[in-house]
Amino acid sequence: MSKDWNTRTKLVHSGSKRSQWGEVSEAIFLTQGFVYDTAEQAEARFIKAGEDEFIYARYGNPTVAMFEERMAAIEGCEDGFATASGMAAVNGALMSLVSAGDHVVASRALFGSCLYILDDILPRMGVEVTLIDGRDLDAWKSAIRSDTKVVFFETISNPTLEVVDITSVAAMAHAVGAVVVADNVFATPVFSNALAQGVDVVVYSATKHIDGQGRALGGIILGTKEMIRGTIEPYMKHTGGSMSPFTAWIMLKGLETMDLRVRAQAATAAKLAEALNGHPKIARLIYPGHASHPQHALVMAQMGNGGTMLAFDVKGGKEAAFRTLNALKIAIISNNLGDAKTIATPPAATTHQRLPEDQKQMLGISHGLIRLSLGIEDCDDLIADVLQALEQA
Question: Cβ-count burial of 287 within 10 angstroms (0-12 exposed, 13-18 middle, 19+ buried)?
Fold first, then answer.
């Protein structure tokens, strides 16, 4: 496969391997194990499996390998390990890199399950975690120590769309030898350049834009071959967080149209932000691609686009927000994102419900906040739908 191909071509062709029958669509190898011609061959493969040699589906599979290779190609890295879900990717990346006594610094503006790993699981394992305001470079500078092992952040946070200065934070982390792990879901593989900007390990929930059609759970961890096969794979294959072959096939099919979908979604998000700017029923509009966003210049420098996600705070709190949500006719109420369908989410009541009230307020997750993941429906129809729903607020 040519490294000179542009992203859209890589999304369709990278990593493809055909059997002797020359199939057009990638084959699904629904098998949990593999047969050896001899006992000697079995022994040799367990000592060291060669390229395109497989042992057990938890360790690797031809369909899964195609997905891993395609994701590595579009991300511009050497390798990837596909996982059962996005959270399996986050957990696997962090747990494989730390031991008792290590120190982790992370942005506190994170998805609820990511916060659970950092707040509850890692401290129980003897890992010290420092949570900071990821927007504040001075906070990173103060928190990162000579013994910091890992730095973790969402490049754009869920749900308040805060942006981390990747290059600056990565430079601070690398100065003390720390590994930089970034959840890049909101930035998407289409607009992201996180590895080139200093991130060592990128994780995605493939459930989101990669599948993009609400069908399957999946995730992937991306980085150097040494990191993926030397550090990540041993942890993942022995703890069972691997992706299934059928899911990998779904993700391969999703990748073929991801660039088209994500660019259309982002264009709609930008137009909706303009339509909502200054709306009398909204106390706060949050869209990184809009000039009103305090980190607009940073996100445009890092991504060149504001992305597919938008949030706004409805005046009147939970009751007004719920009235708005219930009045939507096109956008559906759910807690996923990155789908072909537009999805509206009240984070304080769903994805971040378990957070104590003071933490919600500190993170800006008010009870009037609505997070919108823009789909691929007609842009004018979506804008009209949101505007008519706000009239019910």
Answer: buried
Query: Buried b vs exposed e over 1-15: b needs ≥16 C-beta within 10 Å?
Result: eeeeeeebebbeebb
Rounded-to-5 percentages of helix, strand, coil across the chain: 40, 15, 40
Rounded to an integer, what distance in angstroms lies between the CA atom of residue 298 and that of residue 328? 32
Model pTM above 0.85 = yes
- Cα separation, 388 vs 369, in Å, equals 17
Domains of the chain: 7-254 (3.40.640.10), 257-390 (3.90.1150.10)
Distance from chain centroid for Cα 197: 17
Q: Tell me the per-residue pLDDT of 137-150, one tens digit each, with 9 for 90 and over.
A: 999 999 999 999 99
Q: How far apart are CA 108 and CA 119, in angstroms?
A: 10
User: How confident is the model over 149-191, as pLDDT tens digits?
Assistant: 999 999 999 999 999 999 999 999 999 999 999 999 999 999 9
pLDDT reading at 112 higher than 90 = no
Q: Between the CA of residue 184 and those of 138, 142, 191, what are the distances in Å? A: 22, 24, 10
Other C-beta atoms lying within 10 Å of the C-beta of residue 100: 9
Q: Encoding tokens for residue 325?
A: 């949500």
